[in-house]
Amino acid sequence: MSKIFSMTTALRQIPFPMLRWFLPDVGIDLDFDWEKIHAYDLPKVIEAYESLPESQRKQSEKIVQNIVVLANKKGVIAMREAARICGLTYWERLFPPDSSAYLQAVWAWTEHKEKFDMAKELFKEKAVSPTLLNDTHTEGLQ
């Protein structure tokens, strides 16, 4: 059974400091003074998002759904495999071992879209190397 997607839940999972850069990148420009809002202001972000035109919300939801797909242990493994295939050897050093899968998926989408897209395909095909499946760098991820 697949999970029901909720944009509100997804926005709550993305580390708040990343929302500032991520939301405009997916077409959600909320015109906030990001220097003055904090994580406890997330309901304001969600309210502003929900007030956007439906077409704009739908477009951004498609992107966020892809991020949610990779925001788990197997998704992180697929992103690392895509990075390895593309010669990006420093991927694991970018994140502390306890960094969230959402942080890694959002960062991959914003900074390396081509590797993110490749990771989506690897994830669908379950085409990740067996050594990465046992990698301790992803132990804490669900």
**How many structural domains?**
2
Structural class: mainly alpha
The 3D shape can be described as globular
Sketch the topology as an H/E string, one letter per element.
Answer: HHHHHHHH
Note the beta-strand portion. Answer: under 5%
Instruction: Give the biggest beta sheet.
Output: none
Q: Roughly what is the average pLDDT, rounded to an integer? A: 80
| Termini Cα gap | 17 Å
Radius of gyration: 16 Å
Q: Strand tally, please?
A: 0
Low-confidence stretches: 135-142
> Helical amount among residues, as a percent range?
55-70%
In DSSP terms, counting alpha (H) and pi (I) runs of 4 or more, how many helices? 8
Q: Concise description?
A:
This protein has 142 residues and is mainly α. It has helices at residues 7-13, 16-25, 42-50, 54-70, 73-85, 101-111, 113-125, 130-133.
Task: Give structural notes.
α5 (73-85) packs parallel to α6 (101-111) and α5 (73-85) crosses α7. The longest helix is centred in the middle third of the chain and has 17 residues, at 54-70. The model is unreliable at 135-142 (pLDDT under 50). It contains eight helices and no strands. The chain is mostly helical and 142 residues long. It has two domains: 7-62, no CATH class; 68-138, no CATH class. The two termini are 17 Å apart.
Which tags fit this structure?
single chain; 142 residues; mainly alpha
